[in-house]
Amino acid sequence: MVVLSCLALVGSGCAKKGTGATGADSPKPAGATPPRLAVTGTEYDFGIPAEIEGGVVNLDFQNTGKKKHEAIIVKVGSTAKDQVVKDITALVKGEGAPTPDYLDIYGGAAEVAAGSSKSVDVKLAKGSYALVCTLSDNDSLDDPSKGPENAPLHLAQGMYKPFTVTSENAATMPAEEGTVVAKDYSFELPALAAGTHTLVFRNEGKQPHFASISEFPEGVTEQQARAAFQAALTSEQGPPPGTPEPVDIGFAGPLSADGEQTFDLDLKGGRTYVVVCFMSDRAGGPPHAIGQNMITFFTT
């Protein structure tokens, strides 16, 4: 949901794994296979059962629409739909807006292109939830800034579907390839080599966090990447010409405290990456990357 902040502020994303990182990469024993939850999205609706089994669940999101969509899970309790839509819109569009006490975020499938799909495992306790898309039609444009200034979010156009988690299974997250842990305000990262990985992202902090991963061009050292990223953060006109810019390659979250989900990551050898969180504290304030320096670099 606050997925948009990283792209808006830096024009890229972030990354993962890091020199000196001490990730939580110990494998867990195998558990029960997570049940599949098939979800479809289109303009502007979701297909999802009204009641589901919780615990660890495989969310398989199929975007059958012609626009980019996402399936983000929020725990809303007894709060009315209109209030939730209003509050989430303020979070997405309002820089540094506070998160209401009732609202918790449990990840999902972010920014799925038209006609494609994404499958992630999420952890859900019993309770009342909603599936939302926090994108607007502008996000399907090559340059989102060229779209209407006040384009409505898809959740206000019908992509808000309540559902209830009625029970919890005994399945576990598939953490064999490693776990990226978010704390207040840092990342712990497993040692990763080049290749395709399925990883777990877990929020052990008290504040909400996400992990946005970006890749710098070939030949950019970690020192150069740090300088380029800081230039992008601090310049109102954007980084100076010739500054190397990273490209988004992965995203996990957003997650409230104790949230967990899987995500896929494809890494190249000899590249520098950055992982960053641009969420704000529940009370509001600056994004964590800016106010708390929640940024980590690594090179494969």
Average of pLDDT: 89
User: What does the largest sheet look like?
Assistant: 8 strands, mixed
Q: What is the overall silhouette?
A: globular
Roughly how many Å is the radius of gyration?
18 Å
Tell me the series of helices and strands, N- to C-terminal. Answer: HEEEEHEEEEEEEEHEEEHE
- Proportion in helices: 10-25%
* Total of helices: 4
Low-confidence residue ranges: 1-30
How many strands? 16
Q: Secondary-structure map with pairings?
A:
Layout: H1 4-10, E1 36-42, E2 45-47, E3 51-63, E4 69-75, H2 81-93, E5 104-112, E6 117-124, E7 127-132, E8 160-168, E9 179-183, E10 186-188, E11 195-203, E12 209-215, H3 222-234, E13 247-255, E14 260-267, E15 272-276, H4 288-291, E16 295-299
Parallel strand pairs: 1-3, 3-8, 9-11
Antiparallel strand pairs: 1-2, 3-6, 4-5, 4-7, 7-8, 9-10, 11-14, 12-13, 12-15, 15-16
What does this structure look like?
By secondary structure, the chain is mostly beta strands. It folds into two domains: 4-25 and 173-299, Immunoglobulin-like (Sandwich); 36-168, Sandwich (Immunoglobulin-like). Helices cover 12% and strands 38% of the residues. The chain has helices spanning 4-10, 81-93, 222-234, 288-291, and strands at 36-42, 45-47, 51-63, 69-75, 104-112, 117-124, 127-132, 160-168, 179-183, 186-188, 195-203, 209-215, 247-255, 260-267, 272-276, 295-299. Strand 9 (179-183) and strand 10 form a beta hairpin. It starts with a helix and ends with a strand. The model is unreliable at 1-30 (pLDDT under 50).
